[in-house]
Structures are given as structure tokens and as C-alpha cells.
Amino acid sequence: MELTLIRHGETFWNKERRVQGITDTELNETGIDQARKLALSLKDYSIDSIHSSPLKRALQTAEIINGFHGKKIEIHPGLMEMDQGDFEGLTYKELLACEKEFLGRWIADPESVSMPQGESLAELQKRAWPPIEKLMAAGQNALVVSHNFTIATILCRLRNIRLSEFRSTCVDNASRTHIRIHNGEAHIDAINDVRHLKTATGL
Question: Is the pTM of this model over 0.85?
Fold first, then answer.
């Protein structure tokens, strides 16, 4: 089977460099254009099922992609972004100004900390992995639209690396990550592929 992991298109909070987490933001015009280019790049793919986080930015991206496939989009709460707790809505500049001690620990050992009133990477991975595990067991080509940290923790599991190394698996808006699953083993063909965003779209 083939598993395609998609990060949603850009939102206004992405553009403003705000911590988004589980806040239910929508795609901006750039994000919609990115999703259309992404959809065009995937229109000839063999996709048996489409799955999404329930957050609007992911679901909008999934719906645009699904315009070429006509599947029932399956919603999985476990695929939501990491709950950023008290940091939701803050800009990165504001975080740097008021949370230097926490950010120092996050940079040094991200696996050991939890967001204040939010989640840890381990908690995120624990809820995000079961939907992926079920898709792998089903053995059909699946496309999953989710979020940066969520996809990163899934890729850590697929690559069998520690969550402390999650930064090597982070992905950009409207990126594609392609994985082949054979005999229960993951073979990653591409991570964070954004070549399609450089093309024009007539949609």
C-alpha cells in the first residue's frame, strides 16, 4: 500500500507566525491556492480512501484534493494538531520574549516537556498513531491530511526514531510525504515534497 501524508495549506496564523495548535483556523487565499496546486499534483494518484483531522484548515485541504477523487472523507480526531495550551494564539516573537526558559528546554529536549495546559509530543503520538496503524492494516492506498507536529510524530514512529529527533521530520504547508508499506515495513519515498507549489494552477 501507499500512504500519503499531507499538511494543510497556509492560514492567516501561519502567515502571522502564530502558535496554532488546536485553534480552528481556516485556510487563507494562499492556502486555498496551495491546496488547489496540491490537488492537481495528486489527481492521477490511485487513492482508495481520504482521511483528515477535523480542524477546518485540514478538512478544507482534504475537500479540495477530493474534488478529483470523490471519496467519503473520514474524520479522525486523533489527527488534530498538538494542543499548544497556554501558547495558542501567541506569535513566536511573543513566545521568545516571555517564555525563554521553556523554549530553552523545548529546544534542548523536546521529548521531555509538555506545553503548559497542553500536550507533549508523546501524548500527540499516542493519539495520532492508531488511525495510521488501522490504515496500514487495511492495506489500501490512503491519503491523510493533518498538521506539522502530528505528521512529525507519525514519521518518527514510521522511521523508528525518538521524538527528540522530530525536527528532522517537520513539514511545510501543503507538502506531500509519500510512504510505501510492504510487509509491515515503511519505505519513505519523499518527505516534505513541495515541488507542486511552484507550478501554475487554473483551478
Answer: yes
